[in-house]
Design goal:
With 184 residues, the protein is of the alpha+beta class. Helix content is 21%, strand content 40%. The protein has a single domain, classed as Alpha-Beta Barrel (Serine Protease, Human Cytomegalovirus Protease, Chain A), CATH 3.20.16. The termini are far apart.
């Protein structure tokens, strides 16, 4: 019988406040190397390389989710890469999704600033201090979250431009009408 490893998540926060740029663009570190998270895990450099390569070769991307809920994608990660610091992500929140619009509002208000990774561990070791070193993981998604596991992993740049027209009000009215119809 084939056993599928359980999906794990890591919540991360950075010391830099979350902000939006270029309409709905966000970027920052979803994971940082060499820092022990609140669960006692330490992601090692190179842990994401194999997964990112497989995704690229398959023409797939890491998903952007709301609070790790696979039923609630809220945007698109345009770039996900490892550098000397950790796992850097850059993407766009989609205003056209209900949760995407909510995420934009929460970021603008300063109420949301966490990033978190969803992954499966492929290879790990234990240190003599009892920490788990993650050597290779399959990265599935990076979520915007309220409470990150790694205090230093957070969106570092995000900006949302105001719309000059009434399209936000129209979108809100359409969402309300859609909900009302669904309840009938």
């Amino acid at each position: 019988m084939f056993h599928q490893p359980e999906l794990e998540t890591k919540f991360a926060r950075s010391d830099t406040p979350l902000s939006l740029s270029d309409d709905t663009r966000i970027q920052g570190y979803a994971s940082r190397f060499g820092e022990v998270d609140q669960g006692g895990d330490l992601v090692m450099p190179g842990a994401y390389q194999s997964s990112l390569q497989k995704l690229s070769e398959g023409g797939r991307k890491v998903k952007m989710l709301w609070q790790h809920d696979p039923a609630q994608p809220i945007g698109v990660w345009d770039e996900v890469r490892e550098d000397e610091t950790g796992l850097w992500v850059s993407g766009r929140l989609l205003r056209e999704t209900q949760r995407g619009a909510e995420a934009i509002a929460l970021i603008q208000a300063g109420a949301l600033d966490g990033l978190s990774i969803g992954y499966r561990t492929r290879r790990s070791t234990k240190t003599k201090e009892g920490q788990r070193q993650l050597l290779q993981v399959d990265l599935w998604e990076v979520s915007l979250v309220t409470f990150p596991m790694l205090p230093s992993a957070r969106v570092t740049d995000a900006q949302v431009k105001s719309r000059d027209d009434n399209s936000d009000q129209l979108a809100h009215a359409l969402r309300q009408a859609s909900r009302a119809l669904a309840e009938m």
